[in-house]
Specification:
Radius of gyration: 58 Å
Helix content: over 70%
Distance between the termini: 110 Å
Shape: elongated
Strand content: under 5%
Largest sheet: none
Number of strands: 0
Structural class: mainly alpha
Mean pLDDT: 81
Low-confidence stretches: none
Order of helices and strands: HHHH
């Protein structure tokens, strides 16, 4: 229609009669086909856009599920580690308790065996020992200064000395450290 009537505003083409122009159907059919093809293209673009958005949405959803799954795996692994450590701790506590009871039993046996009355009774009954008679007892005089006491006294004398030699030793030790 646009081609045929592009100059229709000119007076030479102006229809003054009651007859209408001949309707050109080819122009309208081509225009309708063009509009339909444009509409189909628009619908295809929209469908592709929806497919793209759907794909992106599915990809995001899949990644989110993967992260949730990975988080669950990490949580389960950490809980398993904590539970394993708890079992080890409980076993060690049980072992500690048994060792403490064993120590208590051994300490009571030591106390029973170091009891002088018990030792005396065992010596008399089991070993057949008797108390020494008065003629069997020999007294020994130990001098007040024994070898160990003399040795300790000499060590103290050396450490007590303070003078020029001690001062020089301190200076030598300071020089050697630097």
């Amino acid at each position: 229609m646009a081609k045929r009537y592009k100059n229709s505003y000119l007076p030479s083409y102006y229809n003054t009669s009651s007859n209408a122009y001949d309707f050109d159907r080819d122009i309208y059919e081509r225009e309708n086909e063009r509009q339909k093809s444009e509409e189909e293209k628009r619908l295809q673009r929209q469908a592709e856009s929806v497919k793209r958005k759907s794909f992106i949405h599915r990809a995001k959803f899949t990644v989110a599920i993967f992260f949730v799954f990975a988080g669950c795996i990490v949580t389960m692994a950490s809980n398993a580690t904590v539970d394993r450590q708890r079992v080890i701790n409980n076993n060690l506590k049980d072992e500690l308790a048994s060792l403490k009871t064993e120590n208590t039993n051994l300490q009571s046996k030591i106390n029973d065996n170091t009891d002088l009355a018990y030792i005396e009774q065992e010596a008399k009954t089991r070993l057949g020992m008797t108390e020494p008679q008065s003629y069997q007892i020999v007294y020994i005089d130990v001098p007040k200064q024994s070898y160990t006491v003399q040795y300790e006294a000499q060590a103290e004398e050396k450490s007590e000395g303070f003078g020029i030699s001690k001062f020089l030793d301190v200076i030598k030790s300071v020089i050697n450290f630097e």
